Amino acid sequence: MKLYVISGLGADFKVLSKLTFPENLEVVFLDWLIPIRNESFTGYVTRMSDRIDETKPFCLLGYSFGGIMVQEIDKIKPAEKVVILGSIKSDREKSRFIKMGEVTHIPKYLPENIFTTKSALAYAFVRKFFDPKNPKLMEYFTVRDPYYLKWCIEKISNWKSEENPKVIQVLADRDIVFPIKYSKPDYVIQNATHLFPATKPREVSEILKEIFGS
Question: Is residue 43 within 8 Å of residue 72, measured between CB atoms?
Answer without folding.
Answer: no
